[in-house]
Specification:
The complex is a heterodimer of chains A (about 270) and B (about 230). Helix content of chain A is about 80%, strand content about 0%. Chain A has about 270 residues and is an all-alpha fold. Chain B is α/β, with parallel strands linked by helices. Chain B has 2 domains: about 140 residues, Rossmann fold (3-Layer(aba) Sandwich), CATH 3.40.50; about 70 residues, no CATH class. Chain B has a 6-stranded mixed sheet with strand order 5-6-7-3-8-9, sandwiched between helices. Chain B has a 3-stranded antiparallel sheet with strand order 2-1-4, covered by helices on one side. The chains are: A mainly alpha (about 270), B alpha/beta (about 230). At the A-B interface, helix 6 and helix 10 of A face helix 2 of B. Bound molecules: adenosine-5'-triphosphate and magnesium ion (MG). The site of adenosine-5'-triphosphate (ATP) has 12 residues of chain B, from strand 2 and helix 1. The site of magnesium ion has 4 residues of chain B, from helix 1.
């Protein structure tokens, strides 16, 4: 299997994505941002389509769109919760519309659209892998630097108000890192199923582990398991890798909920 | 001369169409145990927010001594049953700054120390979300203490606790006040606790206030409205 360069690329990329998603996911879940993450990935879809339209790689188009919009949404963070959701819905609708427009303008066939939306293993070049590695390392280094303040802000938003942790700055930096993570993860699972890696593994991990570092390790493990096994099954069966990854992560999540249920009954 | 940590001078503050304080003045010195009372909605939490610098006084001055550390236990918090962090990890959240993710040996020792102080060592590794109301308040207190504050602000930390748990919590605070000189700003409705622990009181009332040593707090006929 590894004699094919595209499988090597896919495994390299998938491993990076799983690590970044597992780490970011813990904060995404703690900050209650799955919806925001999903919106960013839809914006990423428009960005990828735009990239194709003007002759960039889909990844670069995605990066451009998600980064700009994450900063814009960051400005909204002061708004009341209920309004924020509506604004995010409006933005997301607008961007999906734009994505469809760019795709039709660029006259690429429909399989290009499905690649962006549902992910594709074949499409990842060595060049892409290098860029994804650079982005992943950047995300990891930034996370390492802001780790303690981000942790305080994410897990104790009210209590952290008296600690001098620069909450607004932390929140913007986090959104930009989320934009990068979404763009990178979309390369494998597609922009429609980002949450499969960015929220499910972390949501599962919180039932088994009770420190941020342990939750992260476990989330990375769950994500890696899904990606590795998913790629392998995809290779064997020729079925879409995304299907396998999504199913594996959903099953892990189901088991976690069940475990939590049993535990709470037995206590 | 005792050192003044908080000095409020002629503070007036109102929300749109809603006056909260008018001409409020008081001081808190190092080592004081101040009990702050007043009915619901009178402005106790608002006063805390002014002291924390989250709200700016309209008229008057609020001077907080430069460089003091403030430990704060807020009245409300987003902790539901699914909250995943262990009590230990929650307490350590207040170790912020540009440091490595994992705690140093010294930090871990400090976490264990405050957890022991509030009496949670048995359940320190259990998720905070599953802790009882009293255990949660103790965890909040431990978190507020972790950075060795000069001033500890408790906003209704004993509301909804049973008498024993209340005492356990306040005994911890009281001991720190007496042995370490930790200054306490204790907001509460509980007249019995207010008489028992603080040495001073500040009683916020509509458009006015009263303050002084606790022995001067005479509320026999008004007790009913607070207990
Ligand atoms: N941001 C705000 N804008 C407008 N009004 C506010 C705001 N914050 C508080 N208030 C009002 O100011 C008053 C004082 O509120 P505060 O929360 O300080 O009361 P409290 O004394 O802490 O009450 P409780 O005992 O119920 O906690 C209340 O009437 C409240 O509705
Ligand atoms: Mg209040």
């Amino acid at each position: 299997m590894f004699s094919f360069e595209f499988m090597q690329n896919a495994y390299l990329a998938g491993t990076l994505i799983a690590i970044v998603s597992g780490m970011m996911g813990v904060f995404v879940v703690a900050r209650n941002m799955p919806f925001m993450t999903h919106t960013l990935s839809e914006i990423g879809f428009a960005g990828a389509a735009f990239g194709i339209f003007i002759g960039w790689t889909p990844l670069n188009g995605m990066l451009a769109f998600t980064t700009v919009s994450s900063i814009m949404v960051g400005e909204l963070s002061g708004a009341v919760e209920s309004r924020r959701e509506s604004v995010i819905s409006a933005i997301s609708g607008l961007f999906i519309g734009l994505g469809i427009l760019f795709l039709s303008l660029s006259r690429k066939n429909a399989s290009y659209a499905t690649n962006i939306l549902f992910g594709s293993v074949i499409g990842i070049s060595r060049q892409d892998v290098i860029q994804m590695a650079a982005l992943s390392i950047l995300v990891l280094v930034v996370l390492l630097l802001i780790f303690r303040n981000l942790k305080d802000d994410s897990f104790d938003a009210i209590g952290s108000q008296t600690n001098h942790i620069h909450r607004n700055l932390i929140s913007i930096i986090f959104l930009i890192m989320l934009a990068f993570s979404v763009s990178v993860a979309a390369q494998i699972v597609g922009s429609l199923l980002i949450f499969v890696l960015l929220t499910l593994p972390a949501s599962s991990a919180k039932y088994f582990a009770h420190t941020v570092l342990r939750m992260m390790s476990l989330a990375i493990l769950f994500a890696l398991f899904g990606v590795w096994v998913g790629l392998y099954l995809g290779y064997l069966t020729n079925w879409p890798v995304t299907f396998f990854i999504a199913s594996i992560e959903a099953i892990i999540y189901g088991i976690s909920l069940f475990y939590n249920f049993i535990r709470s009954k037995s206590e | 001369m005792s050192e003044t940590l908080i000095s409020v001078e002629n503070l007036s503050l109102s929300f749109p169409n809603h006056p909260v304080f008018s001409d409020l003045s008081f001081q808190v010195n190092r080592g004081d145990f101040l009990g702050v009372i007043g009915e619901n909605g009178i402005g106790k939490t608002t006063l805390v927010r002014v002291i924390l610098g989250q709200l700016h006084p309209g008229v008057g001055k609020v001077i907080i001594k430069q460089g003091i550390r403030i430990g704060y236990v807020p009245q409300f918090r987003n902790v539901d049953v699914e909250y995943p962090l262990s009590i230990k990890d929650f307490v350590a959240l207040n170790f912020t700054g540009l440091k490595l993710p994992w705690l140093s040996k010294k930090e871990r020792a400090r976490v264990n120390q405050v957890i022991k102080q509030v009496g949670l060592e048995q359940i320190a590794n259990r998720p905070l979300g599953l802790a009882s109301g009293g255990e949660k308040q103790k965890a909040y207190l431990a978190q507020a203490l972790i950075n060795h504050p000069d001033l500890l602000i408790l906003d209704e930390s004993t509301a909804s606790l049973d008498p024993n748990t209340k005492k356990e919590l306040l005994d911890v605070v009281f001991r720190l006040n007496k042995t370490m000189g930790l200054t306490i700003f204790f907001v509460s409705h509980d007249m019995q606790m207010i008489h028992e622990y603080p040495d001073h009181y500040l009683w916020l009332q509509k458009g006015k206030y009263e303050s002084g040593p606790i022995a001067d707090l005479h509320n026999e006929n008004k007790e009913g409205q607070y207990v």
